[in-house]
Structures are given as C-alpha cells and as structure tokens.
Amino acid sequence: MKFKNNFKILSPATVTNIGCGSGIFGLALNNPQDEITVRTTNKPGIHIASIYNNKNKIPLNTKENSAGNAATEVLNFLINEYGLSNSSGLEFNITKRIPLGKGLGSAVACACAGAVATNTAFGTKLSKHELIPLIKKALSEIKPNIKANSLIPSLMGGLNLIREQTAPDFHRIPIPRALHIVINYQHQRKDNNKTKTNTKYTTVNTPPDMQHIANAGALIHGLYTSDFDLISRSLKETFGEEHWEKHYPGFKKTKEVILKSNALSCNITGKGPAIFALCKSSIDAENIGDALIKSQSTIPGKTKLIISTINQEGTTLA
C-alpha cells in the first residue's frame, strides 16, 4: 500500500467562552494555526524531531507532547484494527503559532494535528468523527478535564454547539461570513512557575439561570438569520462577569470601551487570560483592535493583537 509522505497539517486555535451558553459553544480561528510537517521514517512509532518557536519549552518526548501522544494513539489503533505494520513510523517537525496558556486551545490544536497527520499518512482510514475519542484519550493523559468545546472546533472547524461533553454529540451552527474575531493578550516576560498563580484556571461552577439559557437559544437564532442586533444582545454572561473581574482586574472597564467601539461582544477566551471581541466586519475589527490595545495600555509588558476570520475547515492538509 502506498502511503502519503512529506506533507503539512494545519490545526486552528479556538475560542470556547464566547459569552453565553456556559461553555457549550466552540469557535475555530483562521489565525493562528499550528503546523506539523510529516515524513515517514524507518524507525517504528512517532518521533518529534523539532518544535519551532518553542518558547514554552514543550517537550520533544512523544508521551509528554500532545501531538505525539495523539498521533501514537491513532497509530496504535491503525495497527490493531487495520493491520498496519508494527514497523510503521512518522517524524514530526512542529511549528507552534498558537500561544500556550492564553485560552486559545494550544495543546488541543497540536493533538488534533498529530492525530490527523497520522491518519492521513497511513491512508485516511478513519473519519474525523472516529478520531475524536482517540484524541480525547490521548489528551486526558497529558491535560485532564479537556473539554470537547475546544477539541471539536479545532478538529472540525466552524462554530459548534456541544450538546454533550462525554460523547461526540455536536452540531455546526452557521455564521455570517463577515464575522471577525479580535484577540489581545499579554506576553509573559518570564516563565517562572514559582510566581504563577492558579487564578486563571478557576472555573465558574454556578448553574446557568433562565436568562442564560434564553441567551444561548437567541444566539443560535441570530446566527441563523444574521441578526447582528440579536447576536449582540444574546452574547451576555449572566453569572460570569464578577468572576472575570475578580481574576482579571479592569476587565469590566475594557469591555465597556470595546462595546462602545461597535463590538458585538467582549469576553475572556476559555480560561484566559486573552480577551476577545466578536465583530461584524473587517473594518470594525481594525477599529476595535485599536480600542482594545488602548484599553490595555496601562498594563505593564508587551501585548499581542490578533485579528482573525472564522475557520471552516478545522484540522486539515495544508
């Protein structure tokens, strides 16, 4: 059997806390995306040769790397279920473009890339749906409590409603083509584990109220009908605002500035600390980006601004 060799896989960043729905939505971005270059090798198994732009010192060890672990899970499945040779092996060269620890699904994107890369190299035996439990299993060994609302959009693309976290029960929601996402986060000057706090990993456990449920339903209707006013009215947290303000002082003030700049919404990505705004056009995105930078000007250290459209393909062959 002829296998694919010397190709690239791209996997997108995600936004999973879009402003309502208590984490049931996940959205894929065209910018940034992680990249894996894949080559077959005579050495059995998955081997990570290099990680470019590895500022966080992600390990090359396959078992400690989300891409390597997910790729190994898929490879073992293909060996056991499809009779792939035990001597089959791949070499990965990873380019990291999704920042780690900012709430953009960096580890998940790499895991999706590793799984799709392995499946593609050995004949695309599995559908993306069939890859989901293998990726979840691999990620759980490295990052416990990984949510499907990050995995699904990174793998499948688009905006997805995750009906159930424990099973691949999700549904693509159509979105207006003009929608843009603006993201801003602060670069870390030092990676010192002793000085880090765990505040950004705190989750909101308050059950959603009726207004929150109504907002999620209205958001879906607004997206189907391209009703930007309804989308904006629906993208509101009814219990998370105090949480974000507690752990990210100044968030409320920033949100006020961004909404006055014609943003549809403003929130914290995933578990943070990046802030994002949903915009209804590229022109609005540029203006809102400027406003977002100005609103963060009093925070010491350099910040990074990202403007992106919505990724519709998910993890795919470049």
Structural description of this entry:
The chain is an alpha+beta fold and 318 residues long. The chain is built from 9 helices and 11 strands. The protein has helices at 66-82, 106-121, 128-140, 148-156, 210-225, 228-234, 241-247, 251-260, 282-295, and strands at 7-15, 25-40, 45-52, 89-95, 159-164, 169-173, 180-186, 265-268, 275-279, 303-309, 316-317. The strands form 2 sheets. Strands 1, 2, 3, 4, 5, 6 and 11 form a 7-stranded mixed sheet that branches. Strands 8-9-7-10 form a 4-stranded antiparallel sheet, covered by helices on one side. A hairpin with a 6-residue loop joins strand 8 (265-268) and strand 9. It is globular. The model is unreliable at 189-202 (pLDDT under 50).
In short:
With 318 residues, the protein is an alpha+beta fold. It has 9 helices and 11 strands. It folds into 2 domains: 7-173, Ribosomal Protein S5, domain 2 (2-Layer Sandwich); 180-309, Alpha-Beta Plaits, CATH 3.30.70.890.
State the end-to-end CA separation: 23 Å
Give the CA-based shape. Answer: globular
Mean pLDDT: 88
Number of DSSP E strands: 11
Whole-number total of structural domains: 2
Which CATH architecture of the largest domain would you pick? 2-Layer Sandwich
Please describe the structure with a list of short key phrases separated by commas or semicolons.
Ribosomal Protein S5, domain 2; Alpha-Beta Plaits; alpha+beta; 4-stranded antiparallel sheet; 9 helices; 7-stranded mixed sheet; single chain; 318 residues
Compile the SSE list and pairings.
Layout: E1 7-15, E2 25-40, E3 45-52, H1 66-82, E4 89-95, H2 106-121, H3 128-140, H4 148-156, E5 159-164, E6 169-173, E7 180-186, H5 210-225, H6 228-234, H7 241-247, H8 251-260, E8 265-268, E9 275-279, H9 282-295, E10 303-309, E11 316-317
Parallel strand pairs: 3-4
Antiparallel strand pairs: 1-2, 1-11, 2-4, 2-5, 5-6, 7-9, 7-10, 8-9
